[in-house]
Amino acid sequence: MRGEKVLRACPASSGRLRPEPPDGIRNEFQRDRDRIIHAKAFRRLMHKTQVFIAPDGDHFRTRLTHTLEMMQISRTVARALGLNEDLTEAIALGHDLGHTPFGHTGEYALDGILASYGRSFRHNEHSLRVVDVLEKDGRGLNLTFEVRDGILNHTAEGNPATLEGRIIHFADRIAYVNHDVDDALRAGVIRAEELPRRPLEVLGERMSVRIDTLVRDLIRTSEERGEIALSERIYEPFMQLRAWLFENVYRNPRSRENEKAGGVVRALFEYYLEHPEERAKSDPDPITETTDFVAGMTDRYALSLYERIFVPRSDPDFG
């Protein structure tokens, strides 16, 4: 099988924080996958924005559809390389459980708030907190070390301990860069002629072609090098497209919706920090507890709370 001589799959888990007896039917990574799928945080992903807030259309991606699309890419790569598909799938399903409402905008807003308290917010770190602490009424999911490591280290700054985690590291970017460009074009935030030319000349004009180019290069280069990697010829233009996306879509200063969504997150954080009796209990530290509460909200729940708290209503008894 391709890749066996240079790439070795993670054969089994090294354990959990709290030891458990074997399942008897499923392996440990399959158990992790099932626990994540049945988690409340996983169900909330369907109502959390990927990029666009309250889009007018049924075909824009959510955190849940992004997660499933990325999982498909990562399993394709893992299978081609003879690596552990179950581990890859479990990491993929859990990697974004800690994302805030309103996508990247919500994450930037929450990080900015916490900076004033000498803290920061990173969705990968909060995803690990979700599976370790917040799920199951504070007991957590007790996932394997390998899945927890992959969730924590899936971002660009991370260094996963397993090859399967490294696949997620690349597959996440392959998925969101291409799918978010597709959604941005559909929303009219950008026009096709505005996309940077060199990345498209190397990777492809159409989304499906770009994904195919990247996945095939990831498989081929990983086999050749014995590590999960893209070739320099593909990696550099891909990173150029990613940087362009961050500048022109995620941090688009022209987007009034982004500005308003950030304002909602900031207002809710300040309100619930001052009203501890109204937030869900998760931690003795008020800032951590408020962060847990706000970060766990879906877009529509955050908007409904904001409207209830801050939008004036007529008083039928007045006058």
Describe the structure.
By secondary structure, the protein is mainly α. It has a single domain, classed as Hypothetical protein af1432 (Orthogonal Bundle), CATH 1.10.3210.10. It is 59% helix and 0% strand. Helix 3 crosses helix 8, helix 4 packs across helix 8 and helix 12 crosses helix 13. The longest helix is centred in the middle third of the chain and has 25 residues. The protein is globular, with a radius of gyration of 21 Å. The protein starts with 27 loop residues before the first helix and ends in a 9-residue tail after the last helix.
Please write out the topology.
Elements (H helix, E strand, L loop, with lengths): L27 H10 L2 H5 L18 H19 L3 H10 L8 H13 L7 H12 L10 H8 L10 H25 L9 H7 L3 H19 L6 H19 L5 H19 L11 H10 L3 H12 L9
Rg, Å, rounded: 21 Å
Pick out the low-confidence regions.
none
**CATH architecture, please?**
Orthogonal Bundle
What would the CATH topology be?
Hypothetical protein af1432
Which outline best applies? globular
Give the structural class: mainly alpha
Instruction: State the domain count.
Output: 1
State the helix count: 14
**SSE string, helix = H, strand = E?**
HHHHHHHHHHHHHH
Please identify the top-level CATH class.
Mainly Alpha
**In whole angstroms, how far apart are the ends?**
81 Å
Largest sheet report = none
Overall mean pLDDT stands at: 91
The CATH superfamily turns out to be Hypothetical protein af1432
Number of distinct beta strands: 0
Please bin the fraction of helical residues. 55-70%
Strand content: under 5%
